Write a sequence for this structure.
């Protein structure tokens, strides 16, 4: 499994370089990021070519005519709105990448140091990373199969370039989300290790019998030192998390809007394929199966993204609950040990771990439940409007 995880991480890095999302080089031997002229030129050319082809594709109405053969005006409006917002969101996300390139280089360096100092974090997030990589890869593969199958009789070099641009747009989104997923999973892995250490400290402290002997004082000092190290590492880890969220906040907001519109559009598209048989009558069984499989893996991918963040918040809450066991300690502990516990608890209560993005929303279970309600509501409104008017 460890070899598979490393392969996923390396291929994600290379995919990021290929799409231009990672617009710098990383020296894995030295653990340093370097912004070279070659990387800058290649990334800039890749993005310029991508948006040039997408704009050309949008202006070419001939290639879109077959799409609207069996569609009504609502289909056209929904498709245009999703396409425009998707293109705008990806453009703003890439602008954020260029404007904060130094920041992302520092983040890469920080996470490489985190892994080098704590290589065991991989074993606690390897399943999530492999599952995420598998879902993204399979979903992209099905998307490519469907596109090429539908266009096989009209495929030209110019159309192939435009198809590549559209698929590259999806690839850019997946690379950015994959990077954020890996960083959050790594932080969660480090939190798990800290909680294991904290559990041992709390268990040993609960077993102490205050008697003011030399052995008792020595054990209290040792526990206080260990707890101080945990508190310091947790504070550094939370600062890194906040720094990461601040750097990614523009991209997360843009891509969250894109994901939201895609999911609403997908629900409506699934309804349309049932109501309007002409949309699928001329399609092969392969296209239908691959489309359904794509939707399944797409929604699984969305769930993995949400669960990854919720699991991190759960580990932080677990740390708080472990410290709440301080009330079960026997009275008469060493003053320094008591003080370290109090400071740690006070720091966690005054600086709770919250993932906020541009002040627009905060990711937690309540907000995700509200988002699910909103998705269902807007999807039903689209379907209701279609039923009443077409």
């Amino acid at each position: 499994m460890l070899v598979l995880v490393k392969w996923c991480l390396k291929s994600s890095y290379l995919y990021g370089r290929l799409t231009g999302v990672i617009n710098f080089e990383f020296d894995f031997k030295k653990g340093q990021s370097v912004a070279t002229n070659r990387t800058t030129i290649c990334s800039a050319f890749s993005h310029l070519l991508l948006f040039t082809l997408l704009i050309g594709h949008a202006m070419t109405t001939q290639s879109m005519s077959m799409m609207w053969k069996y569609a009504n005006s609502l289909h056209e409006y929904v498709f245009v709105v999703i396409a425009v917002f998707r293109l705008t969101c990806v453009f703003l996300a890439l602008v954020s990448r260029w404007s904060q390139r130094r920041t992302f280089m520092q983040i890469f360096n920080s996470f490489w140091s985190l892994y080098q100092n704590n290589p065991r974090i991989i074993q606690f997030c390897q399943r999530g990373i492999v599952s995420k990589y598998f879902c993204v890869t399979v979903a992209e593969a099905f998307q490519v199969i469907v596109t090429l199958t539908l266009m096989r009789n009209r495929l030209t070099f110019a159309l192939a370039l435009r198809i590549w641009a559209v698929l590259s747009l999806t690839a850019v989104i997946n690379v950015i989300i994959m990077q954020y997923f890996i960083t959050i999973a790594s932080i969660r892995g480090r939190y798990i290790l800290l909680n294991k250490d904290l559990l041992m400290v709390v268990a040993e402290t609960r077993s102490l019998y205050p008697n003011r002997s030399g052995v008792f004082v020595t054990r209290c000092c040792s526990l206080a030192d260990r707890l101080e190290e945990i508190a310091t590492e947790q504070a550094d880890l939370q600062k890194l998390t906040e720094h990461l969220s601040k750097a990614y906040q523009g991209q997360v907001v843009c891509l969250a809007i894109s994901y939201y519109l895609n999911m609403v559009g997908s629900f409506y598209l699934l309804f349309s394929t049932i109501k309007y048989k002409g949309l699928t009558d001329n399609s092969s069984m392969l296209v239908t199966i691959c489309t359904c499989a794509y939707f399944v893996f797409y929604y699984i991918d969305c769930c993995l993204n949400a669960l990854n963040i919720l699991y991190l918040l759960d580990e932080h809450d677990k740390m708080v609950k472990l410290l709440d066991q301080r009330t079960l300690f026997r009275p008469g502990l060493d003053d320094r040990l008591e003080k370290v516990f109090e400071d740690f608890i006070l720091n966690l209560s005054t600086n709770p771990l919250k993932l906020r993005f541009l002040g627009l929303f905060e990711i937690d279970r309540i907000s995700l439940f509200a988002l699910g309600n909103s998705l269902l509501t807007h999807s039903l409104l689209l379907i209701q409007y279609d039923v009443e008017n077409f």
About this structure: The first helix runs from residue 2 to 19.
